[in-house]
Design brief:
The chain is of the alpha+beta class and 491 residues long. The chain contains 17 helices and ten strands. It has helices spanning 53-61, 86-96, 122-132, 143-151, 197-201, 259-270, 276-280, 288-300, 312-322, 345-358, 367-377, 381-392, 399-403, 432-444, 449-454, 457-464, 472-490, and strands spanning 104-105, 118-119, 139-141, 156-160, 168-172, 183-186, 192-196, 207-210, 421-423, 426-428. The strands form three sheets. The chain has a six-stranded antiparallel beta sheet with strand order 3-8-4-5-6-7, sandwiched between helices. Strands 1-2 form a two-stranded antiparallel ribbon. A hairpin with a 7-residue loop joins strand 4 (156-160) and strand 5.
Amino acid sequence: MTVRSATASAPTFRTASAPPRFDGSKPAPGTTNTNAAQVTNPPLRGDPKNRNADTYNQVINQFAVGNNPRYTPRDSNGDGTRDTFCNIFLWDVTRAMGAEIPHWVDGNGNSVAPGKGREMNANSTVDWMHQHGAENGWRKATPEEAQKMANEGHPSVALWKNPGGIGHVAVVRPGEVTAQGPASAQAGGKNFNSKHIKDGFGNAKPEYWVNDSGKATGKPPTEPTKPPTTTPPTTPTTPPSTGGVSVPKTDLKRGAEGAEVLKLQKALVKLGYMTQAQVNTGPGMFGPKTEAAVAKFQKDHAISPNSGIFGPKTRAAMTEALKGNGGTQGPGPTGPVTGPTAPTGSDAAKAAKIDQILKGTGLAGQGAHIVAMSKKYNVPPELALAMFRKEASFMTAGSAVKNNNPGNLRFAQWETQFGGKPNGSFAHFPDVKSGVEAYFRLLGGPAYRDFIDRGDFKGLINKYAPPTENDSGLYLKQVTQWMQEYKAKIG
């Protein structure tokens, strides 16, 4: 669907005490970041303590999905494939509603800042909901119930996993169920702000999920929820880092409520043990999520027993952990966001073996970095080695050498976060380390994630090196053979 230019006037603020109003025709300030991997900073946010249909409608409308360049289908990573952004719109809306379905997650499914974990596509979003939805306040519902919950102001979504593709997700918005299903807004092959589920999913039968952990009041807010004024739109705000986070002075356990519990929750968010979305389901209430987060902190800091009770030992350890913790920042517009390069234990052994494989090549000494990037983006190191060999003979031949580009990536705007610049049709990176990370970022992102998760290297290679430009059969034969060889050597 072609995204047309918006012609309607910008939304206005009626009075000083009225919330901003949006009709869905023009995106609000802070919602148009076309780097889809980064967060938006919308002017209106939902409050879990005051769920109502009007606010939910306005939160959705502010993104103006049908006319927002953030969701325009395009080749976003330079692989020649037209990408769509259904999961990004879902992320934006649920995040603004304080019930985030994340786009970036760590190994435990927790939401993390952009660039700090694994990036999810539509299929993996469905998997996340099955595995982690309940602990984040989501539950499965019928289409009719999803519509009812949306009409009360609760975040509601439709999800479909496609075993032969990347699936589709959409928002259920306030409205009514018709022959076309519940009312919906979506990005994807078609971008629309107000139609129905079948208009986007066709004959596919999605699952419906609702987050009704907040309180439905039916009363629109009387004060606008203003965006932060000191944080630029490209800077992630989850988890928050205010510099003023401290630990409670009193002992706490499950069942406690109040300001001290909220202080504990903020500390757990800053340290990465809770997400803001989890806190939003019960701010100031010490429930099972807070207890589990405290127990995990205790386990990681060798505090026994891992009871989940906040006491003197946990207080001391958390105070120490907060010292020098500057919060989590996402990747900036330039420069790589590289992980640790001093692995220990089995990782150090793997790095040493990789260094032996790469000895005397243009990738010499990159073993530790390759191991770190493999873990960060969840891409097998043997796959990277095989493709670096195929694409650039380990940085000893071809234009990849002068471009510091071992994966021979074509230039796309997202690569600027790693210092990438265009050199003809290919990307030039400031150093080999940056080029290595850019490769892992591409393979670990939504364009290739499903291929890797399914072990479908034929599909991956047909996309990465299409038959119209390459002998994909030979490419596959060589890469799979070398992968087996390197896996045996690395262990």
